[in-house]
Amino acid sequence: MQPIQIHDVVANEFGQVNEYIVSQLSSDIPLIEQIGYYIISNGGKRLRPLLVLLAARASAELDTTKLNQAIQMATIIEFIHTSTLLHDDVVDESDMRRGKKTANEEWGNAPSVLVGDFLYSRAFQIMVDVGSMRCMSILAKTTNIIAEGEVQQLINCGDPDTSEESYLKVIQYKTAKLFEGAALCGAVIADASTEFQEALRQYGMHVGTAFQLIDDVMDYTSTAEEMGKSVGDDLAEGKPTLPLIYTMKYGEKDAVERVRQAILTGGLEQLETIINDVQNCGAIEYTQQKAQEQADLAIIVIASLPESEYKTALIALANASVKRRN
After folding, report:
1. How far apart are the two ends of the chain, measured CA to CA in Å?
2. What are phi and psi of 171, to 5 degrees?
3. Contact indicator for 318, 303 with CB cutoff of 8 Å
């Protein structure tokens, strides 16, 4: 099953999510709408809102009220995700995302940060309308943990002694946590059993971790066109991702020193050589293996869900998370 087919099983609901997203970008301040439309419409697979819909559909039958709440919850998740992208691009000084200029490159840092704040606050306005205290509690904790992950990543930047354990904690906080929250809130909205809620929570965490592991692989295996961002961005920011951590542990002596210095200085002077170092020492295969393990765990934990096209789509999504090129 290809990604488009995964979306197809909730195509009607997904269309309603897109319409609702547009309606909730409305503001009396034209610049907010302009930047909001720019970033929201700038490509992307909307995997996190998709996960809300699939989790809700896979765990229970939805009446009209619950379906509308799932659509609102999917929009909330997308707004939270988009706001983090706006803030991340400012922190990372990124100039390209999904093949287009970042909002901070187009309008400047201050408008990007403030529109990110607008999307955060709009997400919580919608959350009040949904009226689920459980979901509000989940997402309040989720956004707090994401912020902690971002700060920890900032601390790790420029530190070549960052451990694999520390790296995994960062990606579970800053990336996987929102996948986890999306899947869990979908199940909560559907009034799924405690067993199904926990299964989908774990599923989201595993898929999100696999997704980020592959994202970090692509920084050393893909072109800028495939990624939609500049090659070597992680290295330029001094981020010790798993491919680099593995290279420093198992690479040849010269490769270890090159990677250490690049992380310390955030330099791209030896980017091509370092890409070869990463590719030649088994770091790519190791990271891909770790991602596959997470995808396999995601599939295992939802085994108890009833058979349906939605469960099939969740399995396909887990598999697709480790086979993507962008």
Report:
1. 17
2. -75, -30
3. no
Give the model confidence (pLDDT) of 20-42 as tens digits: 999 999 999 999 999 988 888 87
75 has a pLDDT exceeding 90? yes
Give the per-residue pLDDT at 3.
46
**Residue 37, SS3?**
helix
Q: What span, in angstroms and rounded, lies between the C-alpha atoms of 163 and 281?
A: 18
Q: How far apart are CA 248 and CA 260, in angstroms?
A: 7
Residue 140 in this model has a pLDDT that exceeds 70: yes
SS3 label, residue 189? helix
> Which residues are 96's β-sheet partners?
101
Return phi, psi of residue 308, to 5°: -165, 170
48-65 burial, b if ≥16 CB within 10 A, otherwise e? bbbbbbbbbbbbbebeee
Q: Could you tell me how many helices (H) and strands (E) the chain has, helices first? A: 18, 2
Measured between alpha carbons, how far is 122 from 191 in angstroms, rounded to an integer? Answer: 24
The phi and psi torsions of 162 (rounded to 5 degrees) equal: -60, 130
Q: Helix (H, G, I), strand (E, B), or coil: what is residue 150?
A: helix
Give the integer Cα–Cα distance in Å for 268 and 238.
Answer: 10
Contact status, residue 183 vs residue 203, Cβ threshold 8 Å: yes
288 within 8 A of 217, measured Cβ to Cβ: yes
Q: What is the mean pLDDT of residues 151-180?
A: 95
168: number of CA atoms within 13 Å, CB side? 11
Instruction: Let me know the angle formed at the C-alpha of 69 by 63 and 73, rounded to the nearest 5 degrees.
Output: 140
pLDDT, mean of residues 92-110: 84
What pLDDT digit, counting tens, does each position of 221-274 carry? 877 555 555 667 788 888 999 999 999 999 999 999 999 999 998 777 888 999
Q: Say what the pLDDT of residue 39 is.
A: 86
Q: Rounded distance, CA 171 to CA 173, Å?
A: 5
